[in-house]
Amino acid sequence: GAIRMSSVWDRVVIDKSSQFMSIPHDPASGSQPSASIIVLHGLGDTSQGWADVAGSWASAMPSVRFVLPTASLRPVTLNGGMRMPAWYDIVSLDSDRAAQNCAGIDDSRALVDKLIDDEAALVGGTSRVILAGFSQGGALALYTGLQRPDAALAGILCMSGYLPKAGSWQVSDAARASPVLLCHGGADPLVLPDWARRTLDGLKAQGVQASLKEYPGMAHSACDTEIRDALEYFKSSLSL
């Protein structure tokens, strides 16, 4: 008879204090998860902001587990020092964003690095882990994933993001094998489309296999086409 796949939402686990969310793989797909995808939210958001999208991806890839951490609260200069979930401080939205020192980003990188190691231990190695993020989370995904010292991730997805602290760090030799997909709104007023193109050029100059998909008319958000494109990217990167 047909195997009834359990609902994704029946499997969601949320830690109330840390707002850390995970969607374990569907046990009907096998005893162990085939891969893990880490999703990093944007400034002022929490794991909940990407729960629906991650849930739709999980439904389409039942053997994959998803983990969505929530950034700790920190004062954000851009917002008058107000405390909010943030992976690092943003001083302003001006065009030299890449040159800002991103106070706190290395602490966040260390957290995500540990998360990658934890997930890799569950799914058979770093080559079965994808790091994805939106906006500030996408910037952190690039910054963390492309500096991994020992083994390449299966992929890095940066949605509406940019290369933080560009020019102050190098892509590691190991990480050059991680395929990078940049997705960006053609009408993004916060992280300009030109920054995505500059990010693409900067990554290619360092030997990274990077590609950029632009979505005409999309502002600083996500759209259904992009979510589908991301799913196809996940499947091809993980050979699912």
Short description:
This protein has 240 residues and is of the alpha/beta class.
Structural summary, described in words:
The chain is 29% helix and 20% strand. The protein has 6 helices and 10 strands, in the order H-E-E-E-H-E-E-E-H-E-H-E-E-H-E-H. The strands form 2 sheets. The protein has an 8-stranded mixed β-sheet with strand order 1-2-4-3-7-8-9-10, sandwiched between helices. Helix 3 (105-123) packs across helix 4 (136-145). The longest helix is centred in the middle third of the chain and has 19 residues, at 105-123. The two termini are 23 Å apart.
Terminal CA distance reads: 23 Å
In terms of DSSP E residues, the strand content is: 15-25%
Low-confidence runs: none
Q: Helix/strand/pairing class, anyone?
A: alpha/beta
How would a crystallographer describe the biggest sheet? Answer: 8 strands, mixed
List the strand order in the largest sheet: 1-2-4-3-7-8-9-10
